[in-house]
Amino acid sequence: MANIITTATPDAATTAPANGTADGRPGGASGAVWDALNAAPDGATVAALADASGTSRATVTKALTAFADAGLATRTPGQGTGRGRTPDVWAPVPTTAATGAADPATAVPTDDAAGTDAPPPPDATGTGVISPDTLANAMQVLSDEADRRAAAAESLRKAQKEEAERRARVDAELRKAEQRETARVILTDLLSTVTTTLAAIAADDEERITRGMEDIARYAGSVRRTNRATTGTRTPRTTGDRSAPSPLRPLVAEHLIAYPDKEFTPGEIAKVLDRSSGAVANALDTLVSRGEAVLTCESPRRFRAAASADADSANTP
What we know:
Layout: E1 4-8, E2 13-17, H1 28-38, H2 46-53, H3 57-69, E3 73-76, E4 89-92, H4 132-202, H5 206-231, H6 248-258, H7 266-273, H8 277-289, E5 293-298, E6 301-305
Antiparallel strand pairs: 1-2, 3-4, 5-6
Helix pairs in contact: 1-2, 1-3, 2-3, 4-5, 6-8, 7-8
């Protein structure tokens, strides 16, 4: 509540603020704002008046609001620029004795809160109704941000897909390399076994030949498994009667019948038929068990046609 001192004179009673001056100028911080405002008759912003008066913007705003309520100051709202508003401009209202305008000292509260940094009223902070241009620009910014996020999400999705495909290719190449290395090791061992077995055939070493053929058959199974793992395909197996004679057996029998008075080793027959000696040896053992051939010598093993075999024995199962 403002403290008012009333004095009586012969003409009339006059009032003056307790903290004002004799000429009606408000005292304290409001007086500094009043001086700065009157020093800018063409108008000034809150920031400019705060710099000129040496007070805070909150103090300037509070004093200007009081001046405007008393009809001593006018406010020109700022204009929209598309990205915001320009600051409001404050200007003093010229006062004369004829206008009967109120004294500035009576328009400013004289309590101790006049010089404090109170928050400005909502209508004097420079924020007003949002202009259509400002709203349109804000909507455009939101639209652009949505487009940017969508593009970033799509770019991330493509990058993740490409990375997944790259990893799949790398994994496939690693598996292929491992499978090829396994096949190389198996084939190297198989080649060594085949070479050793061929040497045994040349030396007519039946024991080494048999052992070599068994090893080759074992490696052949490993080769089939490796081929399935490498290519993803299975080697088709023949179906039918497994007890049916091999096509090699009739050829061996025909060779013995063609030379009934001669004895042959498996290696000799294999050279003539261009087959492996192990397979020929197996065929000869079968012919002996069937009575179609005779083992004439154990070491080296020699065979001849049985005396009772006829010319058609080669075609019988």
